[in-house]
Amino acid sequence: MIIVTGGAGFIGANFVLDWLAQSDEALVNLDILSYAGNRETLASLDGDARHIFVQGDIGDKELVARLLAEHRPRAVVNFAAESHVDRSIHGPEAFIQTNIVGTFNLLEAVRSYWGGLEGEDKANFRFLHVSTDEVYGSLGKEDPAFTENNRYEPNSPYSASKAASDHLVRAYHHTYGLPVLTTNCSNNYGPYHFPEKLIPLVIHNALAGKELPIYGDGQQIRDWLYVKDHCSAIRRVLEAGVLGETYNVGGWNEKANLDVVYTLCAILDELNPRADAQSYKTQITFVKDRPGHDKRYAIDASKLERELGWKPAETFETGIRKTVQWYLANAAWVENVTSGNYRNWVAKQYA
Ligand code: NAD
Ligand code: DAU
What we know:
Elements: E1 2-5, H1 10-22, E2 27-31, E3 51-55, H2 61-71, E4 75-78, H3 85-90, H4 93-115, H5 119-124, E5 126-132, H6 157-176, E6 180-185, E7 187-189, H7 198-207, E8 212-215, E9 221-226, H8 227-240, E10 246-249, E11 254-256, H9 257-271, E12 284-287, H10 302-308, H11 316-329, H12 331-337, H13 340-349
Parallel strand pairs: 1-2, 1-4, 2-3, 4-5, 5-6, 6-10, 7-9, 8-12
Antiparallel strand pairs: 9-11
């Protein structure tokens, strides 16, 4: 069995659902259920003995030690994090606590457990840390895409906290020999994406007749990957990654934010036309830019393809259409996650 942390969030839940759809290997899902964690996403697993959900903090060393001793996993996959850049600008402390201190405590508990393993159990154990391309900073228009050798130059409290956690993971390998793997992925999109992030926010606001907020001039570039492709990359790295190595994950899909929003509007115009027959584009509104906004991210994922044979299954065109269709078919999920706390966040961020 394996332990997954943060498996009630966007990527973690997609990973859990895909894992159990493809294998009978059980997993413990440790998630604190912050505003971003949602049990409803995992409702299809109710009563499934292969999914053991535990509400708790990765920073709770005693709890993690107990789970490790009881379930004796062959791997820990760490998704748990505070993940939204704008929230890290309003309040960085939670990012320091979970992403740095939490990862440190998790590593300590795992190091102690791994130290007590023997033979094949010890040799086969893996700690996979899920990280982001944002640790590399921001690219100029003509710069080559980030490789695993790029310098770390994080610019936001979020990316700085992720960079710190990556460094701790690296240090636990070099100092203690802990069998770690790290993945650095570009922007994900797909089902169960919390509507504080650009793509689900735009779909949600469009359908609600609200403004589609574009920060600054909308010419910032992100490199988009369908979430299920990120999950398949993590499975592949867990299976065959070289210990201590880092792997960039991306889909070679660089897009300016404004173009992403135009694409979403065009798909919505086709699948769910507005009653007044106007385009959803008319709802686009330019708003104040994000402080310290990174201009461009682009991931060179050729190491993962060359060494482990991984490639994404979706193009941006196929993935974004599936995503819009998913949101149209799952209005109840969106409705449930956009209550109380979410409204407070929107009021503060877009005031
Ligand atoms: P998310 O915010 O949707 O989910 C995070 C989950 O972690 C939530 O379920 C939350 O309840 C849980 N969590 C938070 N603090 C915790 C704690 N102290 N203990 C246990 N659980 C805790 O995030 P996401 O978008 O699914 O991102 C998952 C991971 O992937 C993060 O580490 C993030 O940095 C990384 N990542 C995200 C993207 C992206 O585009 N979303 C891209 C690359 C890497
Ligand atoms: O690159 C990987 C990262 O991608 C992950 O590590 C983060 O966890 C994830 O949140 C994401 O970070 P971004 O800041 O790139 O994602 P976000 O969806 O918040 O914003 C995408 C772009 O859209 C960014 O340039 C800011 C812009 N934006 C965002 C929002 C929410 C807008 O223009 N308007 C908005 O309302």
